[in-house]
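Record type: monomer structure entry
Structure origin: computed from sequence
Chain ID: A
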Amino acid sequence: MKVAIDTNVLVRLLVRDDEGQFQAAQQLVEAAEAGQQDILVLLGVLLETEWVLRSRYRLDKPSIAATFARLLETQGVVFEHEATVEETLYIWGQNPGADFADCLHSARAVHLGCSRFATFDVAAARLPGGELLAAAS
């Protein structure tokens, strides 16, 4: 059995700012660790979680990256496309000024077989497969 979780469940689990909700989320993790079910983290949920941790909770990039790396190693927690998540974290770590969302989009595009990731964003164009698209004049 597999259960997908929403961003708010993942955030409660990570920041423990509401004890009741944390306990409910923790029960899901305990069931996953016991092999009763898997917890699925969708790519969109991961993307939203990074934004919430950075903007609302003011966590820095290394803290967020370490948190996501720990999630990758948690028994019973699976990701929509684990290879994309791993590649995203690698790209994000190798590009200090890069935005997590751009790294995720770039990694996913590569994993989907795209030869290029066209963008008007100069920073995103520096990512693997990135290509700065020139505006028509």
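Annotation 1: The chain has seven helices and five strands.
Annotation 2: The chain has two domains: 1-80, 90-137.
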